[in-house]
Amino acid sequence: MTTVSKERTQHGAKVEEGTHRLLAFRTSPSGVRLVPAPKARAWMDATTDRFANRCLPLCMANQAGWFVLNDRPFEAVWDGGEQKEAVRVEYLRAAREGESALAAGHFGFGVLTFHVPYLVRTPPGYNLLARGPANLPKDGIFALEGLVETDWLVGSFTMNWKFTRPNHPVRFGEGEPICMIAPQKRGELECFVPEVRNINDDLETAYDYWKWAESRWKFLTAGQRASALEDEGEREAARRRYGWQKHYVKGTSPTGVSAGEHQTGMRLRPFEEKSGG
């Protein structure tokens, strides 16, 4: 028996059921690439024993979107003025074939603007969240966020960064992410009805919470006692034992109950180069 995949059409292209097409139409020749955001961050790997990588929420957020990569290294500085000319951009090498100057002081007020050379199209009812690369701080400048209705927009969007202090040169290297994009279903946040309650209003939730709190306290206390051991070998063995409790990573509660759904990583599809749909 042959199984036939159900398909539908989105923006003139066939889409298999259960998937959505995220289209990026190149508007001008450019070396700007779109890639799935990786899990790794250099500053996280540089922590002792790569400790920051034990934080699953951080690692998941790192991967939750696609990076827009800069194609030409440059240095930018803001002199503190409000005019757009107060932001100066100096490219560090000559443009190669197909490259252009994407960054400029377009809006003034200490804002560095990237003109993203793509028109992005999301499925009907989906916006595009354009933000800075998750958990990747940059000294002297801060990424601003925008929520764009890319299911109907017929133009491209800009990515903007706000300088945090004047006369501080900021460098963007070749291949460095200048933007992170992620589709977001329109109206979904408005569907939520927020409430604040006392933890003891829900006995099952209260029980699970207090068991977790007790477990966490015992674990941290044991770790503190272990760090005070005089024998270096015993102290190192105890440090490894009490360095990571792993309940959240494993998707289990201290009572042994497993989560119904649990993710420890993402595998976003890469953008494929296609022509003619």
How would you sum up this structure, described in words?
This protein has about 280 residues and is an alpha+beta fold. The protein has two domains: about 10-190, Deoxyuridine triphosphatase (dUTPase) (Deoxyuridine 5'-Triphosphate Nucleotidohydrolase, Chain A), CATH 2.70.40.10; about 200-250. The protein has five helices and 16 strands. The chain has helices at about 40-45, 55-60, 205-225, 230-240, 245-250; strands at about 5-10, 15, 25, 35, 65-70, 75-80, 85-90, 105-110, 110-115, 120, 125-130, 140-145, 145-150, 160-165, 170, 175-185. The chain has a five-stranded antiparallel sheet with strand order 4-5-16-11-13, with no helix packed on it. Strands 8-9-14-12 form a four-stranded antiparallel sheet, with no helix packed on it. The chain has a three-stranded antiparallel sheet with strand order 7-6-15, with no helix packed on it. A hairpin with an 8-residue loop joins strand 6 (about 75-80) and strand 7 (about 85-90). It starts with 6 loop residues before the first strand and ends in a 27-residue tail after the last helix. Residues about 1-10 have low confidence and may be disordered.
